[in-house]
Amino acid sequence: MKRYISIRAKFITLFVLLITIPFLISGISTYNKFAEETEKNSRAYSMQIMNQVKINLENTIKDADRITVAPLYNEDVLRILEKHSYEEPGEEKLIPSAEITKMARVAASLTLDQPGIERMIFFTGDGIMYSVEEKLTQRYWNEKGNSWMQEVLNAEGRLVIIEPHETTYYKRTERVISAARALNHPATGQSIGVVKIDFNMKELEALLSEVWLSDNSQFYLTKDNGELLFPDELVNFPDTGPGDGTIDWNGQTYLYTTMHSKSTKVNIHGLIPMADLQRGGKEIVGFTILISVISLIIAYLLAIFTSERLVRPIRYLQSRMRRVKDGAFSERADLSLMNRDEIGQLAQGFNLMVTEVERLVKEVYETKLREREAELSALQSQINPHFLYNTLELVSMQALKERNLEISDIVASLGKMLRYTVDKQERPVQLKEEIRFVHAYLQIQLSRHGEKLSSEMYVDPSFESCLVPKLLLQPLVENALEHGMGNSGLTITIRASVLDQDLLLTVQDNGVGMPPQRLLEVREQMLCKPERDGSRPKFGDTLKGYAIKNIHHRIQLLYGVEYGLSVESDEASGTLWRIRLPLRWGELECTM
Hints:
Layout: H1 7-69, H2 75-83, H3 97-111, E1 117-123, E2 129-131, H4 148-154, E3 160-166, E4 175-184, E5 191-199, H5 201-209, E6 218-223, E7 228-230, E8 243-249, E9 252-261, E10 266-273, H6 274-325, H7 342-380, H8 383-401, H9 405-422, E11 429-430, H10 431-449, E12 453-458, E13 467-468, H11 474-484, E14 490-499, E15 502-509, H12 516-527, H13 546-559, E16 564-570, E17 574-582
Helix pairs in contact: 1-6, 6-7, 8-9, 9-10, 12-13
């Protein structure tokens, strides 16, 4: 047995699915598109920021390159460096104050208006150092603790960026990032010293710290050989390729961007945790989910309310149907409570249906009552026919005893008629039974009218076993007597013939006939639907249109609309009734 699911539950389920599924599809699609666009925008933003850092860094390195080349165009600097390039570093030497002053002035002039440069130092071949800040720097240097020197000399005059390192030539140890160049004499190409620039770490950090990608992003600079330049405290870092992409590092997924500066030989790296990129999206998603949940709740409530409004008329009709089912056929749906839609039309149809059912039930009920009354009447009259038959036989015998044959014949004919009509079963009879009944009726009428009435019957014996409805001819004969009898007398002729495999019975008289208007009225009465009382023409009924209608419609109900009764009449020649029946045969027990 299938589980019962109410239409309201189906409506609610349908509304929930129609609301939720598109919402989920649009929400997931929007979130994926948002995440994709966020990642795309982050890449573009990081590339833009790092490109600006690259430009600033290249400008700083270009300034350093220009400053470190400038001493080669100063005669005093070349002469002093050349003077001290031929001796090996060793014992401390006496340095003329004029040289110190000249070198300090050159360094000061070159680093003026350069906040990114902390100091400019000249290193000679014999171990002497020249600097602007004499009080902060040592007077002499040695190779120990200055491992960077060999890298600079190997560069053969090219600018070298030196990664963060500890200085040994300051009076106090400092960690710096530097750029250095080996100075080769323009004329001889011989190395005469090294110039080194120490960048201002605070300015450099300020320059690079402007790069902010996210709260937990990483930004660092490396040389082509992989050595870290900035920041100094970064111990380990991933090896990222050029361009941008994603990489797993330290248990997290990062979006990386790498740019290379050809002029400075420096790689600029940016790492952004995907979690940082998704954090903003998660906040938006969380807010969106909150708004969506509220919207869904409102939508669900509206769905419940709407489904209730849709189902309420149906429930109302259902309650009315239950009452009709319980027998309350007077129930009707109040159309004022219905909308002008399919349900309203259904309510109208329900009212029409209940009205028709009520009419049919009432009609069937009344028919049953009539049948019961008829059965009771039949039971009550079971004794009466036998009493009447016995009484009529006693009268007939008494008439014979008194030698009155006419009365005996009348009484015998009346007995035959009573036997024929007392049977209330609606069944076909043989034509000879109907003819005998009409003959008995005419015998009685002959005693009444005398010579004014005569009858003729032309029925071939081969037609006597044809089956016809009961009490078919007598009402037509009675009609001829009632309306056709004139001063000159009346002759009634009854015939039976076959026409196109059908039985044709005619009842004709030569009486006064009917005028055209009366003939039209009779024909219209024949076509009118008779009362539904289940009765048939009774012996003794006058033919005031009632029997005509019943005969005609009984025939059509039994055999179809192609059969029935028709009439022709003329005031000069009388009236002719035609009865057309299907030709059927049968051997039935005679009741007369």
